[in-house]
Amino acid sequence: MSKPLKQIHLAAHFPGVNNTTVWSDPEAGSHIEFSSFAHFARTAERAKFDFLFLAEGLRLREQGGRIYDLDVVGRPDTFTVLAALAAVTEHLGLTGTINSTFNEPYEVARQFASLDHLSGGRAAWNVVTSWDAFTGENFRRGGFLPQEERYSRAKEFLATANELFDSWDGGEIVADQETGVFLRDAKAGAFVHTGQHFDIEGRFNVPRSPQGRPVVFQAGDSDEGREFAAAGADAIFSRYASPDAGRAFYTDVKNRLAKYGRREDQLLILPAASFILGDTDEEAEELAHDVRRQQVSGATALKHLEFVWNRDLSSYDPDGPLPDIDPDISDTHISKGRAQVRMYRDPLATAREWRELAAARNWSIRDLVIETGNRQNFIGSPETVARTVNDYVQSDAADGFILVPHITPTGLDPFADKVVPLLQERGVFRTDYAGTTLRDHLGLEALS
Amino acid sequence: MHLAVALDGTGWHPASWREPVARPREVFTAGYWADLVAEAERGLLDFVTIEDGLGPQSSHFLDPDERTDQVRGRLDAVLVAARIAPLTRHIGIVPTVVATHTEPFHISKAIATLDYVSSGRAGLRVQITARPNEAAHFGRRTIPRIEAYDSPDTQEAVTELFDEAADYVEVVRRLWDSWEDDAEIRDVATGRFIDRDKLHYIDFEGRHFSVKGPSITPRPPQGQPIVTVLAHDTVPYRLVARQADIGYVTPHDTDQARAIVAEIRAEQRAAGRADEPLHVFGDLVVFLDDDPAEAVARRERLDALAGEPYTSDAPIFTGTPNQLADLLQELAAAGLTGFRLRPGVVGHDLPAITRGLVPELQRRDAFRRAYEAETLRGLLGLPRPANRYAAVATATV
Ligand SMILES: Cc1cc2nc3c(=O)[nH]c(=O)nc-3n(C[C@H](O)[C@H](O)[C@H](O)COP(=O)(O)O)c2cc1C
Predict the structure, then answer these.
(1) Residue A79 at interface with chain B, using a CB cutoff of 8 Å
(2) Strand A9-13 and strand A235-238: pairing?
(3) Which listed residue, A71, A426, B16, B51, has the most CB atoms within 10 A of its CB?
(4) Would the pTM of this model clear 0.95, i.e. be above it?
């Protein structure tokens, strides 16, 4: 046992638009007012978290051709809200999910470089690769990108943005009022990029930012996505928070680094994780049970079944048995704008499996969705949760977690107040920020 | 009278950064912008605008230059606006947005969010760019080089860019209305978070792009944040008349001011907006000192440093705050409803506006003595607009 204790990384995911968020709870506040974001960010910073995380969706979800109305709907613009949060925090990293398909490198690079300047070096970019025509209907060029090309555009997008970030080396601004030299180099910001997706040249107009480049996250799970992360990301936002799946993912991705000449500590694995705290483990279990039933109403259960069945199931009783008809496996999807749809690659097999499972356990539709759906990752007393979080990290299931509370905006407070001090006592989480930039918090090397 | 200041780097004179009061090394920090906007708010100004562009500043109208003796580089104006919004309480914040290469969907939610983070004090200044080098930064289209300003080709190209900008603003505005104000219902009985009948597809189809909607961001606090446009000619006046809440114009005397206001009002009637409030603000670059000779000497000193006399699309005023108050009142009598002042040297001329001009106007009962409203719309005397889709819904019941 000579292995030194790993330091845990913790981040806070502002609850987004899915059924993790319990909006019906009397404590639930606004998902859109700035005061909610400010409260959430201040809690994360009070607890010395590494960063705040925002997801993104660029088209409202639909089911059966109508806007999905059961979950929280509506979110602010990522860059704008992160810049505003930079005004009410001092240390907290600010991570925004920004898609590489419906944006252009010059504009996104300007926005991230600006955010990094305005936050004193706290910006991070979670590069995602949505490509579908459904989302594309909101943009000038429409849904132009075939699925196979999304990572080739993402890769070139990131490479191009990096060329723009690097087009200033940091020493160009002299601003000597006596001699009248503002710029040392008349060509500061000059770039030329020629490639498959972008053919651009000119001058980038934001000087080098405190971190040089934003920290880069990746969130895709395919083989291509993992390679993209291994080649150029600083961290992965993953969906594998359980010990076994987490370790398998961790090993897989870290093993991919060597061929890009990178070390294992240059890519952090940070899964999304939800939690339920109680005074005792039993109390937490009971609470978790209640929260799950709030997260999955009868109506929500039917809608979730529709992701697999791809049929209108509104005439079914959520407290009754699963449908005995088979899923519709045609290409048109009843549910649009949902990642889950792609998760069920063989709907007929999933339906068969679920029917058998439900029959064997005597589960209704709602029971099945609750039992097979996303369970809370950490449930228990603060002691139990602190111990489990630490065990997962020390056993390389993750390098830390991006916590998603189920209540906005106060859901993070109990974790900050009760679990973080226990992690600090164990010496596995910082008691104060050691550096000023997000790169510092994450233990990543500064760019030269 | 309404008053705004236009913030750009260390000021509008290209040598402004050489002045001892300038803070040229800080223009890329949040603290710099926070200080400027705090000063503008102390002066009870209606709003600040923040300049921007999709390429480096240049001393040429259409092409980049390779000068090293002027401020080059700037931060994204929407992000600067968002960064200072939580630090202020009353003043409006109006960043510049370039319509030519950006997505109306992104900008609509960005300005809506600026309205949320400022509790109803957001606007935007929409701008086109005809610079070929900026088009090359995006690589999606080429913009033909403008060779002669009054050639038919140029007129056509510019008209097209402004028509596209008009569509752009139309999309932005429809997206702001794509959620009715009371769309979020949190109806526990039925399990519905929203009433989806109060969300609307905008189904915009235009010559340059189409956008489906609805927005991902709910309708902002002001309903419609303030849309502003700088305009020098008939084509842009038409954009002002069709889509703006405020047009900035650059008349050099009161006769010209009267003529421009008349032209914009006629365009406004032609656009079917005669009954809607539309401000026409005069834009002026200002060099202010208590002694008029001092202001002249300062401008000459700056011109000498720059190596050439300063010129501008807007009239340049050099004199005392009292003289400026006289001029503004004259121009107001010609039909201008407010002014956007561009400080020659921001560190000097902004405080001269807030501590010299404003008290003088107050003495003349021509300017507010306290902020009288919570939102930018309120400050400008503009009502909160009804939602176009809600109106349609009730009309068809
Ligand atoms: C944990 C996780 C979170 C994600 N969050 C987002 C998001 O907020 N917005 C988005 O557009 N895509 C998001 N994605 C989608 C991915 O970026 C990617 O586009 C998608 O997974 C398809 O790529 P893949 O085939 O490599 O998985 C997320 C994916 C994962 C695994």
Answers:
(1) yes
(2) unpaired
(3) B16
(4) yes
